[in-house]
Amino acid sequence: MNANLEQIKQEIIAGADELNSSKEVYEFRKKYLDGKTGKIGLLMKEMKNIPNDQKAEYGKGVNELKVWALDFIGGLDEKMKAKELQDRYESEKIDISLPAEKSEQGNLHPITLIRNQLIDVFSGMGFEIFEGTEIETDYYNFTALNTPQDHPARDMQDTFYLSPEFLLRTQTSAGQIHVMENKKPPIKILSPGKVFRSDDDATHSPMFTQMEGLVVDKGITLCDLQGMLDVFVSKIYGEGTKTRLRPSYFPFTEPSVEVDCSCFECGGQGCKLCKGTGWIEILGAGVVNKKVLENCGIDSDEYSGLAFGIGIERTAMLKYGINNIKLLFESDLRVLKQLND
Amino acid sequence: MLAPLSWIKEYVDIDITPQELQDKLFSCGFEVEELYEVGKDISKVVVGHVLTCEAIPDTHLHVCQVDCGEHGQFQICCGADNVVAGGKFPTALVGATVYATAKDHKTVEGVMTIGKGKLRGYESFGMLCSGVELGVSENMYPGAGYNGLLVLPEDAPIGADVKPILGLDDWMFDIAITANRPDCQSIYGIAREVAAVLEKEIKAPDLSYTESDAELEGFQVSVDCPELCPRYSAHYVTDVKIGESPVWMKRRLALVGIDAISNVVDITNYILKELGQPMHAFDCSTIEGNAINVRRANDGETIVTLDEQELTLTSENMVICDGVKPVALAGVMGGLNSEIRETTNTVLFEAAKFARDNIRKTSRAVGKRSDSSARYEKGVDEYATVMAMKRALHLMEELDCGKVARTHVDVNTGNSVEPREVAVSINKVNKCLGIQVPNEDILRIMNNLTFAPKIDGDDLILQVPAFREDIENYQDVAEEVIRLYGYENIVPTFIASAQVTNGGLNLQQKAEARLKNALCSVGAYECIHYSFFSPSDLDLLRLPEDAVERHAIRIMNPISEELSLMRTTLAASMINAVVRNQKKGNLEGRLFEIGNVFMPKSLPLTEYPDERAKLCVGIFGEKESFYTMKGIAEKIAETLHVEFKYSNTSNTFMHPYQTASISCEGVEIGYFGKLAYDIADDCDLRTPMYLLEIDLKLVSQWYGKKPVFEPLPKFPEEQRDLALVVAKNITCGELEDAMKEACKYITKITLFDIYEGEQIAADQKSMAFTVVFTPKDEAFTTESVDAFVKKILKQLNKKFGVELRS
What we know:
A: BirA Bifunctional Protein, domain 2, 2 domains, B: alpha+beta, Phenylalanyl-tRNA Synthetase, Chain B, domain 1, seven-stranded mixed beta sheet, six-stranded antiparallel beta sheet, 20 helices
């Protein structure tokens, strides 16, 4: 009897050498350990034929064999699975330097990116966004903005005319007149949009984008203008960026100022970007001319306002280091793909 | 505007450096665009005394020993014909920089550094210089124009820097003048501003002269067009002796870029630069009829101007006439018939104010720009006309080239040249600025500006000089105060008094932003194209003559024909963008644009046109197909929470069988499909291109749509795959619609296979769908779903002869 158990044990040990896969191990295990058909399982069924006095010893012997076989074959299985896993990994060796397969994500145009940033900053301050029309009348583009027919400031801008009365707006300020005519103060609007001037070179495009801001309320001052612009530049160009005002001229503001911000490249030390001055011109602004308010039926004794106009292309070109404004309108994918801010 | 420092200094004492003055001007609103020393390229050139001068045999050269004082004595070879022992000449030392000239010794070809040289075996340690080599013209220094050495005066100190002697140490300010300050378009105007900034006295130019008894008896001036000529003054001068102007005048004119011509003409040019008032001088002997008449030109009238060009005029132009004929094109250029000649012995000076707009239009219409017209375009004031006339007469006396006669005629429309009283509230000035500027500072600043201020309570009473036409109200005064008080005194505040307002994007702006992001997520890049396009773009799209897109608004003054029409479609710009990309080797990609098209209600425009926002998508590359573009359309629909329906359509620039119109809730909103092959060929496209255009103005009615939450089904959904054999001409859409019609529980139909070939009859195809049934009130049984399928198949068979594939 014991010899029979020992024979099975030796058979298992010998058979183990023939096994090459975990699947074969599974079959092997079944062959010996399956409760109904396995060789060890069958030994258990033999119990009924064993004399009573030998039953205990027989049972013990079979059970010991079973425990041993479970452990032995389990060990085989574990080893085989580890080897198979390793083989699978080996078989899946790849060249990680092969090109990536990307699901392409497009991006917004740099002008839209800057526009969105500005809108974020100013809508947080309570500005509504108003987009006027690209085609305007002479009245809204010039006359109502204190630039009558014979005004020298008309020479500052070469205007595209569509008829003696209609033109392509030269400034987004045109839309603000419509707002002021239709809305009572307090007014806080931001007007982004395309504007047009008859200019065409590396830094000028006949179409470009402006973003004009207007606040009309009681007691608005030049100090408020600078305070608001300080917040704006620190959000767009980074904490600590300062503004500097210097006198300028726009017909629709008085006083009018050019606004420079401390160079965000060198922090005001002087570098190539700021041409050594430490300052970069970023926008024009001023206190709204009372004549403009009055043209819109707003009482200039009660209300005052501030206005500013930002050139989006210039901001984008400064921010991304783009040297030719034309690149923004040529839709060259080699350019657009780089500007995924 | 160019202003030499030495000239400004004639009217105001300047005791700061040119760079400090630049900063002061900058901070008060006058940006100095360029500041440079007249002799900026010249260095290490000193007065040299030629001790000996020996001819080098068989050459034109001389070898000289030159004493340069403290710098030493040098042997220098010189080829100029006027080198002579005992003479003093500008001597460029080794290491000096001077202008290099061409073989003609006149044309400057850049800057060169002098090194040691050897000529014909003679060593040379420097160079004796001509005027050209030092950038000095005859007008800037007498004798400098000689094609040889510039001869320095005998008393020039040996070894001294030549720059001060030749005026090369002067500084030039190129100043940007804003449009509201035409009064600063002159040296004197700038000097007034400098005086105000530096708190110095302004020294008025000498305006004195003595009138003789001579007169032009019966002489009359009439102005027929006072709207174009508010002021016209004329003065008669006798005993004119035409000759050269003095050196100082020629030098100043040369510095600001004007050639000297003759004393009388130079005086008019000098006053234009000095006082900013264009002047004209007529040879009085050519004036017929003893009269000057200012009028609009007759249509077709001609005049020959000083530059001997004949111009044909219209009534939009203004002419100065004598009793018989036009003698000048007002404000632009004098007539040839009345020009100052060597023989001129009587002169009639003109100082006038002409409407700036008229001069600008005339100058552009006849294509003639002069210093005078350029100045008039910026606007002159009447104060200047009076001052300029006096100054001209003074200079005639000072230059001793004529006697001022008694005859003076001044026609004006009543504008005073006296100061105007302007009263403003100090409180309002400070409220505009947001700071309290002390009254004494306001008084000081107004005094410096010569506004003769007085304070009476809250009132600031000013006597504003006539040349400051820009000062009208408290805002104008606030600007004057702060630009001289200093912008650094502004204390930033954050609209403390303003009321809280709701900011942010409106519905339409939000929807467009979401659309853009959705398109980026399918790999498309946003582009922005010009709002104008070319008439040839309409031809590219093969649009018929009566197409609505051809009814485009034309720009009256376009930059070029290519940019002359306002866009009526975004398709052409998109095709052009793809063409540009392919030319640069980008053979696949996805682009989109949201922009306006401009549909006029009438042409020419009499009312605002319809500006419609459109979305255009252009995709190209071998991987793209009608269906990838359809995927983009679906993405758009999904983003807007709407459903698009498609039907076959065609237009002139798209593939006839691969183009679909898009509709939403029964409204046609756009199209998409493949670009027509003939257009792709015309554009040399190397990979297929697909276009989509949607009218966002139409779509905007659904912008507010929110996604609707459908409660999850209470009972499990059932799904069946159906392989159908159908005639080839039956579309997927037709089958889907028919299935949905046959069973209300269908919530989703997905085509997963199409087969055509051997196992199927030639005129048929097999289409396999997965159909999802969603129960509503009770769970489905196998039998109930079988019944649905049966009903569906029956319906399909009836409608399209569809059979289940066996």
